[in-house]
Amino acid sequence: MSVTKPPHAGSADPPAPLRSIPEASVARLAVYLRKLGELAEEGADTVSSDELAAATGVNPAKLRKDLSYIGSYGIRGVGYEVAALVHQLERTLGLNHRQAVALVGIGNLGHALAGYVGFGGRGFPVTALFDVDPDLVGIHINGILVEHVRAIPEVCAERGVTIGMIATPAQAAQGVCDLFVEAGVRCILNFAPVVLQVPDEVEVRKVDLAVELQILAFHVARKHVAAAEQATAVNGHPVNGAGRLLS
Predict the structure, then answer these.
(1) Contacts by 147-152 with C-beta closer than 8 Å and gap 24+?
(2) Cα 187 to Cα 162: distance, rounded to the nearest angstrom
(3) Cα separation of 172 and 183, whole Å?
(4) What share of the chain in percent tops pLDDT 70?
(5) What is the pTM of this model?
(6) Which pLDDT score, from 0 to 100, does residue 238 have?
(7) What are 218-239's pLDDT values in tens digits?
């Protein structure tokens, strides 16, 4: 079965049918899409599952399973059509619809996020910025006015914000979250070190940089332990600190 071809420009593009896709697969679909975008820019027309798997660091069988969730099985001896697969992935990930983003908290992290032009290039334009600091409210970042957090419900509703990002201190995050919910925002990316309480219909993704560093520290420690264990034996014989076999 070949992949579905993209529709002609101007034709109707119905939403992708709802299917149950494991969350881990969804995360990998986003990685595939990023790589496919690079291949498209390089002029590639097709890519094999082995090539795409190697480029994204995924087992080929797992990649084929992931793509089967969106109805893509490739063509034997040819692989996947890059443009068609990009189109399918964009539909599945909801990138064929405008995803307006609002950011609250223009501190060090928030200012960096607000100034990052890559969001818009990937279909997530930041359209609203909020803070409570009088030195920040009223300034422009990348042409966007920083407004007071109390304007969140009105501004987000007016601009059709679908995703809210929270980069505030922990004690302010829940209040900001409540304002997003009041505005009808149903997807929230939370950088604050706190667990948010939301209605069942609201999806929250938490980004905790400290936790991620701790996970990396765990892997560093494991590598050190493995290296130490390897250093204590060569072919089953213990060694001294100089690497010489002990009798």
Answers:
(1) 149/104, 149/175, 149/176, 149/179, 150/179, 152/102, 152/104, 152/176, 152/179, 152/180, 152/182, 152/183
(2) 7
(3) 17
(4) 86
(5) 0.70
(6) 57
(7) 989 988 888 887 877 655 555 5
